[in-house]
Amino acid sequence: MLAYYLRLGLHSLRRNPILTALMVMAVGFGVASSMTTYAVFRAVSGNPLPDKSTQLFAPQIDVWGPDSRARGRDIPDALTYKDATALMHEHKAARQTAIYPVGFTLVPRDAAREPFAVSGYAAYADFFPMFEVPFLYGSGWNAAQDEARATVVVISSKLNQQLFGGANSVGQTVHLDDHDYQVIGVAADWNPRPRFYDVNNSSGFTDPPDFFLPFTRAIDTQTETAGNDNCFGSGGRKPGFDGWLQSECAWVSYWVELPDAAAVRAYRSYLLGYADEQRQAGRFHWPSYVTLRNLTEWMDYERVVPPETRISLVLSLGFLLVCLVNTVGLMLAKFMRRAGEIGVRRALGASRREIWLQYLAEAAIVGVSGGLAGVMLTGLGVLGVGLVFEPDIARLAHINLGLVGLTLLCSLVATLGAAFYPTWRASRVQPAWQLKSH
Amino acid sequence: MHIQPILAALRKHKAGTLLIALQIALTLAIVCNALFIIHQRLAHIAEPTGVDESNVFVIENMWGEQYNKQQAAANVEQDLATLRNLPAVQDATQSDSYPLSTVGGSDNFITLKVDQVEPTTDATVYSGDEHFLHTLGLKLIAGRDFRADEVKDAGQRDVVVPPVTIISKAMADKLYPNGDALGKSFYSMSSTPVTIVGIVETMQRSRLGAWAIPYAEQSMVWPIRDASPLGVFYIVRAKPGQLAAAMQEAPKALYAANRMRIINPKDGLMSFAQVRRRAYDSDRGMAILMGIICVVLLAITGAGIVGLTSFWVGQRRRQIGVRRALGATHRDILHYFLTENLLISVGGIGVGIVLTFGLNLWLVTRFELGIMPLTYVLSGVVLLIVLGQGAVFAPALRASRVPPVEATRPA
Q1: B358 — pLDDT class (breaks 50, 70, 90)
Q2: What is d(CA A377, CA A411) in angstroms, rounded to the nearest whole number?
Q3: Fewest CB atoms within 10 A around its CB: which of A12, A181, A254, A317?
Q4: In chain A, where are the structural domains located?
Q5: How far is C-alpha A49 from the geometric centre of its chain's CA atoms?
Q6: Which of A329, A337, A425 is nearest to A22 (CA)?
Q7: Which among A159, A11, A177 has a CA at the least distance from the CA of A169?
Q8: What is the pLDDT averaged over residues B163-188?
């Protein structure tokens, strides 16, 4: 029976090709714009570490006091060097690491090759197990090497390819900014997006880091941060690198792993206790204030999803809504015009349900065709997304089987939803009245 | 034209009428807000930088060796001499940042008193030498340029607060609204006052995020040579019309003078046009997207009105025939459909205006968009009425050509 209805539907749609094309294109455009912006939204709002996002936390400490917030700013989204090293030293979480971005010049062994710039992060040993960094060769360094300020480095598989042709390079040396580092591990392709541990410095969607080295070692060589350095107020600061380390400038990212609710509670009170201690020591002249956000809360707090992406999604959904209202109107007109035909079919014994199903089948054909048009337009949209969004973000959006399926499903569901009222009206046609009027 | 019979007829097509009205309402809300977003973004892009944009380019030079402050400063001076000697080059300077760079440099709180809590403004700090104004083409409107002996070297974390500065007119007006800023001083995150010795007409900030909108064009130059161990920006002004030649010879000359440097092949060398494109990437993209949404949405709404009206005309051929037979002219029938559409549009627009402000208010609270001026709604209303009348015209014309004899035919 369904096949028969579909045939009837096709026949009816072919009778008004322009109107049919209009409905199909409306559904297609509406779905395609929503799907394209959704593809971008999905790419930037994804959870970078789903299995651990509730166990990873970023603490904040109010080191600048209420004056700094007079103009609506929040407390710094990084720690000062003093606080980061104090928290590292007291080691109260299951795992913890201080992190900051660094940039070096890499001078290849081969004198014929030009030196080039590399970027990476200074971190502690816990970084690797905490963030589940996969390794191709070797491993991360250990806590003892943190203590010893070891000259070791973990390099990315890309850098390993560039320098050692992809071979196992563990034990080889890499020359970074006048210092030799021993390769201790080669990380497999690892670039969580957004890069949650660095969203306070970057958009979170930049190229993957080339290397990681011990935080303690980076400080030893007086390596500057390549990220943000937020300072507040006109307070005197001693000059030079040590003056900077002792200052109230916030530039160290800090992450802790807390396996359960009890650990979170304990760490929160520990942080507050730490801030209280600092206040009693005369460093803070205001009530202690700390925060502890988990990974997903941190993504929200840092507004990782650019406002452009959200506005586009909202307006595209509004656009889809208009397209659907349009389709409802056209279908209604089309179906009601055939009231006479419906009257005849009803008089010949078709039930309301059968009429309803027949017109729903016709709507489904529109939905599927609209979906196919939508898939093609979404393809075009994703290709053209570079025109509209920033390059870092645009390249994340891509079309895959899931998106194609979602586009088809979305257009079918939307069209059937839109068809609900017109088909219902069609099924309520009074046969007697229709027959009489002719 | 009597409205009464039209309303009576519309009552028989309640659902269709409501759907068109709803579509017009939603279209108005979305188009007005999209146009407003487009306007805001374009206005942002059109802000002047004060820079001689067609002749300036920028080199991001990173050092390949670890230099101390003296070595870095000497290298910078040597490189600048190399650049200034090139035949296609007018002048060259160094800085830690430049207008629209979006990277490097710093943004400082500015206060008028040393113990002031709430900052008076927030300004971009550019480090620059006595060639900075001339190289960028910034127009000095009061006071003087830096002297060579005022320029001090500063390493990465050195807290150097110079005694003198050159600021933008926008910043001068913000600090001293009476126009007497020259010779006065202010504090910039330090307890040492800085004296204003020069004012330039326009000098855009380096960063332009939403937070910086209240501080547009607030910027200043400090007489500092950037002797950072990381690297430095060289800003070069080519002789008029020789930008391409200068951009080609500059990196070659620098590498020939000293190989231990990195100029990233990807974005280490950028003309100011490229700098501008990068800075306004997301603004331009947003304007394009909103433009596409507007055009397609209006097209679909227009097509929807054509489709639905065509159906109504087809459905009412007999009634139209009867009216024609009873003496109605072509013009009467045409007016009937145009007025019908106008009534529906007005109804839709009434709801649409409420939706427009609702959506705008929501965008304001969620995305710091700004309140929409009434002119947008008015132009949106005019646009939709014209669209509706235009869309309904063809079917209405067809209706007016229905011959009176239709009255005698069965539907």
Answers
A1: very high
A2: 13
A3: A317
A4: 2-47+307-436, 63-257
A5: 11
A6: A329
A7: A159
A8: 93
Amino acid identity at B109: F
Alpha helix stretches (DSSP H) within A126-260: 127-130, 143-147, 157-164, 215-220, 240-245
Query: Do B232 and B226 form a contact (C-beta atoms < 8 A)?
Result: yes
B252 vs A392, which has greater pLDDT?
A: B252
Across the interface, of A70, A237, A326, the residue whose CB is closest to B301 is A326
Residues in CB range of A205: below 8 A, 6 or more apart: A44, A193, A194, A195, A392, A393, A396
3-state DSSP of B134-171: HHHCCCEEEECCCCHHHCEEECCCCCCCCCEEEEEHHH
Other C-beta atoms closer than 10 Å to the C-beta of B132 total 26
CA B94 to each of CA A114, B83, B170, B267: distance values in angstroms, whole numbers, following the listed order: 24, 11, 23, 17
pLDDT average, residue stretch B190-216: 88
Which among B293, B360, B41 has a CA at the least distance from the CA of A34? B293
Task: Break chain B into its structural domains and give their ranges.
Answer: 3-45+282-408, 65-259
CA distance A144 to A366: 67
Backbone angles phi, psi at A2, to 5 degrees: -65, -40
Q: Which region among A25-39, A334-348, B347-361, B374-388 has the lowest average model confidence (pLDDT)?
A: A334-348
How many angstroms separate the CA atoms of A365 and A159, rounded?
Answer: 52
Greatest Cα pair distance in chain A: 98
CA-atom Rg of chain B in angstroms? 32
Name the minimum distance, in Å, from the CA of B38 to any CA of chain A.
12
Chain A residue numbers touching B118 (CB-CB < 8 A): 70-71
pLDDT of A71 reads 61
Q: Which of A311, A337, A387 sits opposite B367 (nearest CB)?
A: A311
In total, chain A counts a number of residues equal to: 438
pLDDT for res B32:
94
Determine the distance in angstroms separating the CA of A178 from the nearest CA of chain B, rounded to an integer. Answer: 7
Residue A290 is predicted with a pLDDT of 93
Per the DSSP assignment, residues forming a β-bridge with A384 are none
Give me the DSSP letters along A171-198: T-EEEETTEEEEEEEEE-S---SS-GGG
Interface test with chain B among A29, A34, A73, A105, by most B beta carbons within 10 Å: A105
Cβ contacts of residue A99 below 8 Å, gap of 6+? A121, A122, A123, A127, A197, A198, A215, A252, A253, A254, A255
Give the torsion sign (CA, B6, B12, B18, B23): negative
Which residues are registered as beta bridge partners of B61?
B232
Hey, are the CB atoms on A326 and B304 less than 8 Å from each other?
yes
- For A193-204, write each residue's pLDDT tens digit: 889 999 888 888
Which residue of chain B comes nearest to A324, CA vs CA? B23
Contact B225, B151 (CB under 8 A): yes
Q: Which two tokens stand for residue A367?
A: 């939905």
**Cross-chain Cβ contact A308/B282 below 8 Å:** yes
Q: Taking Cα atoms as reference points, which of A284, A253, A256 lies closest to residue A270?
A: A256
Question: In whole angstroms, how far apart are CA B390 and each of A319, B322, B385, B395?
Answer: 21, 26, 8, 10
Task: Supply the pTM of this predicted model.
Answer: 0.81
pLDDT digits (tens, 9 = 90+) for B209-230: 777 878 889 999 999 998 887 7
In contact, A248 and A232? CB cutoff 8 Å: yes
Name the residue among A249, A133, A272, A253 with its Cα closest to residue A189: A133
Angle between helices A307-337 and A352-383 (to 10 degrees): 150
Apex B325 CA angle, B321 and B326, nearest 5: 120
Report chain A's mean pLDDT, rounded to a whole number: 88
How many angstroms separate the CA atoms of A245 and A225, rounded? 11
ipTM for the whole complex = 0.80
Take residue A69 and report the two structure tokens written for it. Answer: 């917030």
Say which amino acid occupies A230.
N
